[in-house]
Each structure stands twice: as C-alpha cells, then as structure tokens.
Amino acid sequence: MILAAALAALSIDAASAAPGSYTLSAGERRCRIVLDAPSRTPEDSLIAPDAVSGLVMAFPDCPEGLDEAALWRVNSEDGELVLFDGAGTALLTARQDETRQWRGETADGAPVQLSAR
Length: 117
What we know:
With 117 residues, this protein is mainly beta. It has one domain (2-116): Lipocalin (Beta Barrel). Helices cover 14% and strands 44% of the residues. An 8-stranded antiparallel barrel has the order 1-2-3-4-5-6-7-8. The chain is globular.
C-alpha cells in the first residue's frame, strides 16, 4: 500500500512537471518544443481517465520527425511521457530522471532528451 501511494505521488509529480518550454536534443540536433498546460486531466476525461494530456507546439526544425508532434500525455500509473502526431501515432516515449529531464527514445529507437528551458 505504501509503495502504491509513493508511485502515485511520483506519477502525479511527473504529470504536473510536464507542461513547459523545453530544448529537445536528438544526437547533435536541437530544437524548441513547448508542452502546453493540460487540456485533459483524469477528473474530466472519459477517454483516458488514467492520464493527463495537452497540446504540443514543436518548431519546424525538430529532428527525428518530432516537428509533427501535436499532443502529449503522461500516464498517471507509470509517469511515462508520450508525444503523438495529429493522427495519434506515438513519436516519442520518455521518463523523467533524477535531474528532472525527460529521457527516452523515438518510435525508431533514436535517443532523445527534453531539458527545461
């Protein structure tokens, strides 16, 4: 029970930490990406009651096709951040590390990092 409460607190913290302006790095390439404030929370979502989600604004020069990102979602169970394109295809999956940066990979397996600006 204590472990479940600790994991829930971590997940809520990750979801609240997601919105903001980031530098997205993939290899030597960088771009700016903005995760807008949540437009859906578990309390008002019938489709994804276990997640927080919002809009993404990605600059056109983002690497690895991430300039197509349109939506973000953080799963409240595991704290995983996923960026989707407008068709709902997952483009990036990441987790927040101890330095509060998001680290993960694209759908093609390329390593990516989101650092708060």
